[in-house]
Amino acid sequence: MTVRIVFLGPLRDIGGEVEREASAPLDWEGLLAAVGEPVASHLQDARVRVACAGRVLADKTALFAQEGDEVALLPPVSGG
Predict the structure, then answer these.
(1) What number does CATH give the domain 2-74?
(2) Could you report the per-residue pLDDT of 50-62, keeping only the tens digit for each?
(3) Phi, psi dihedral angles at 77 (to 5 degrees)
């Protein structure tokens, strides 16, 4: 039983991979452990968002991904 974690933007560069699988169910603490440092420290930044099963979470620490879900790590958006 797995969850797919997708690294987007600069988080892809920091993590050194496009995606990774983790055991389901997956909560916030499990996500931090699964992505390892330094991605986990970037996830602590309030500007970094997390989406689960296509929905951006209002409170990323409430993450509860189930079998087959995709968890996307969304870096801060910049622009003018």
Answers:
(1) 3.10.20.30
(2) 999 999 999 999 9
(3) -95, 135
